[in-house]
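Narrative of activities, Objective 1.

The group set out to show that a structural description can be obtained from nothing but a protein's sequence at a throughput compatible with the screening campaign. Below is one input-output pair from the validation batch, recorded exactly as produced.
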Amino acid sequence: MFHFIRLRRYWYIFSLIILIPGIISLGVRGLNLGIDFTGGNLVELGFEQVVSVPDVRSSLTEINLGRSVIQQADEDQIIIRTGLLSEEEIEALVKHLDEKYGIEEVLRNEKVGPTIGRELAQKAVLAVIAASLLMVAYISWRFEFKQGLAAIAALLHDALLTLGIFSLLYIEINSAFVAAILTILGYSINATIIIFDRVRENLKDAKKGDKLEDVVNTSLWQTLARSINTTLTVMFMLLALYFLGGATLKTFILAMIIGVTSGTYSSVFFASSVWIDLKRRFPGGGTRRRRTADAQV
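Output recorded for this entry:
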């Protein structure tokens, strides 16, 4: 039987190989922040006819505004979020769409300053930190503190990988990207908890002298089919949305595809390996139902 835990050094090396380029890119180039973070204009238009988001996006591409965030407010109403534009550029935008589709009324024309963007970025970071702390607290209560640390290490792995790839590809991110990161963390921690729960149950039945590495490896094999099946089911849906959904969904869906893949990998190969090494370096402690000291590390 393939032994996941005995090969954990290879998983660490593989993780470093895929993480380091993204971390370097984050430090050197950073992220391509969208208007949700940098500020911009919000224009809501009422048209004389029914219009669609693809039609409006195609028209805006003609005036180099194709990367704007476009939302359908009603059949004849469209919300457009752009980068910071001057009044002349806004007038040119409105005139261009008026010539194409006929504008009945400019319902809103507002500016979102970079101060609001910075506040959103700060709240996004605080949300991730708060979620991580709550997860550590829950896992520490449900299992043990070292498993909480291992789970957070896996979450950090998934978040850094997703951020790193977006930085390397310099894909523009918006507030939906923050929602994707939080969703990824929730998905990843759920898979990790299922594995840790199986480890705890197997430790209850372990014989004195059984190696902890072997117990964990058995638990991973017992949950592997569930992990793969769940990931494939989610991935089929995400791929369908990515290729068939609207352009405004692509950033969110791409982040989810990367995060779900990374979350499955980290839950199976990374989290349990980190826990084993924490147990080796800091002996003592145990799960809530049975001390792991009964198994040899």
